[in-house]
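Notebook, bench 3.
Goal today: get a predicted structure for RBR-type E3 ubiquitin transferase from Acorus calamus so we can plan the truncation constructs. The sequence was checked against the plasmid map this morning, with no discrepancies at the termini. Length recorded as 282 residues. Pasting the sequence as submitted so the record is complete.
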Amino acid sequence: MEECVDEFYLSALSDHDQLFPISDQTYAEELHLQEVLMSCILSSLPIQQTLQPLLKPPTREVGQSSGSHVFCGVCMEEKPSEDMFKNTNSPSCASHSFCHDCISRYIAARLQENISMSSIRCPEIGCMSTLEPEFCRAFVPLEVFERWDRALCESALMGSERFYCPFNDCSALLLGDEVVGRVNVREAECPACNRLFCAQCKVKWHSGLKCEEFQGLRGDEKGLEDMKFVELAMRKQWRRCPRCRMYVERTEGCPHMKCRCGREFCYSCGLTWTSAHLSCRR
C-alpha cells in the first residue's frame, strides 16, 4: 500500500519523465500531503481487516515446542527441550513442562518447608499429580534426592515406633513393631551394621545387665568400659555406698563398712549403718 502512495507522490512531482528539484519547505509540505493521503486510504479499509494483526498476535501455550525449545511454566522462559522435565508418570500432568533448574529448586523448597513428604505435587496451579523421586533423580542434586528419599521412608512409617541404631557411625532408621513388644525382645541386631543393641533401652547392648539395672546407672557409667566394670561388680556382688555410689569390695570381716566419703553402711543390705544392722542377714 505504501508503494502505491509513493508512486502517486512521485508522479505528482514528475513532468512526464523529468523530476523537478524541490526546496526543503516544499518537500516538508508534500511529505505532509503523503501522510494525509495514507491516513485517508487506511480509513477507507474495514476496521476488522486493519486491527486483526493486532488483536490476534501469535501465541504459544506453556510447554508448547518452538523448534528445539520448550516454554517453562515456572520461570516463563524458553529452554532447550533436553533441559525440560515432564511428569510422564501421570497422564493428567503430561502437558506440564518445567525446566530442570526450576523443578529442582521447587523440590528443595518443599522439603525445606517440612510438608507432608508423602506428596510433593506438580507445581502447575490446580494440578493434584505427585512427583516421583525416581523420575527426578537425573537432575535433582544428590543431597536433595537423599533427603527426599529419607523423608518418604519416614512418612511411610508414620504411626509405627521408630528409632535409630545407637551406634553413631550407623544411625540407621529402625522399626520397633508389635512383635518386639509382645515377646519382650531385648537383644537385637541392626540390619545395617550387624551390631547388637537393646531393643528395650534403644542403646548399645548392655551385656550382663538387665534393662532395669542399666537404666539405674548414672549417665557417666553407661559407656562400654564402665558397663564392663559394672558387670564385674555385679558378678562379684560388690556394694555401692548409699551416699557417693562408689563400689566397695569387702574382703573379710563384719558387714559394717565405712566408705572413703565418710558414710557408714551395711555391706549385707547396702543401707546406711545403724545398730539394727548388727544382725542383718541379707
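Residues 43 and 207 are 101 Å apart (CA to CA). The chain has nine helices and 16 strands.
Flagging this for group meeting.
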